[in-house]
Amino acid sequence: MKSPSSPAGEAEARAIQDELRARVVLDEPGPPPGTGLVTGVDVAYDDARDLVAAAAVVLDAATLAVVEEATAVGRVAFPYVPGLLAFRELPTVLAALESLSADPGLVVCDGYGQAHPRRFGLASHLGVVTGLAAIGVAKNPFTFTYEQPGPHRGAVSPLLDGAGEEVGRAVRTQDGVKPVFVSVGHRVSLDNACAHTLRLAPGFRLPESTRRADALCRRALREAVGAGFGTGA
DNA sequence: GCGACAG
DNA sequence: ATCTTGTCGC
């Protein structure tokens, strides 16, 4: 039982990240934007009942039509700690992904990949554990800095860490709307990650993959609570 | 030492 | 993440 999926504490979780980080692949371009399948994943919480619901929504990358959906419900296994988000979200997300019959293709995560204090955010962790190509699209820049991209859709600017290294990009997906923060997870180049993000967000700030997964996991959580998942044995 | 900090 | 009314606008 090496590299346990549920670490006992924060120190162990960081040690797991440091160990798994060596397996991240950064020299593959990944699937060409607009081809094959793209899968969005997201989770919703009910802290009072200690429940977490995850959703995986598979889209046709060319048309953005929904190909397949899956959900999973479980118990929260780890608290929210900045930098350790994967340990909170991944167990349930993996359960949802495993119940898909389609090959997920490129996985789009709600959070970061390489833009992470130890270069091993949620998207990199998911990619290494599953072997799938993965990217992270986050709504906030976390501790990283960036210059405002141009005002129009498609404008980008580097997302920089404290040493001035580019760990991702701020990508303007809609005219005059706050950018999203894209970083590589596993087996995808940063250029392709940004291109995928733009294609996935033709009409809204966030990628359709993320929007669909967000709506689905919220619904799954409501239904789980309604069915009494938080109650007795 | 304290605060900030993806979701 | 989540708690939450009305309101502005296409």
TrEMBL record:
<keyword id="KW-0378">Hydrolase</keyword>
<keyword id="KW-0479">Metal-binding</keyword>
<comment type="similarity">
    <text>Belongs to the endonuclease V family.</text>
</comment>
<feature type="site" description="Interaction with target DNA">
    <location>
        <position position="80"/>
    </location>
</feature>
<protein>
    <recommendedName>
        <fullName>Endonuclease V</fullName>
        <ecNumber>3.1.21.7</ecNumber>
    </recommendedName>
</protein>
<keyword id="KW-0227">DNA damage</keyword>
<dbReference type="Pfam" id="PF04493">
    <property type="entry name" value="Endonuclease_5"/>
</dbReference>
<keyword id="KW-0540">Nuclease</keyword>
<dbReference type="GO" id="GO:0004519">
    <property type="term" value="F:endonuclease activity"/>
</dbReference>
<feature type="binding site">
    <location>
        <position position="42"/>
    </location>
    <ligand>
        <name>Mg(2+)</name>
    </ligand>
</feature>
<keyword id="KW-0255">Endonuclease</keyword>
<comment type="function">
    <text>DNA repair enzyme involved in the repair of deaminated bases. Selectively cleaves double-stranded DNA at the second phosphodiester bond 3' to a deoxyinosine leaving behind the intact lesion on the nicked DNA.</text>
</comment>
<keyword id="KW-0234">DNA repair</keyword>
<dbReference type="InterPro" id="IPR007581">
    <property type="entry name" value="Endonuclease-V"/>
</dbReference>
<keyword id="KW-0460">Magnesium</keyword>
<feature type="binding site">
    <location>
        <position position="110"/>
    </location>
    <ligand>
        <name>Mg(2+)</name>
    </ligand>
</feature>
<keyword id="KW-0963">Cytoplasm</keyword>
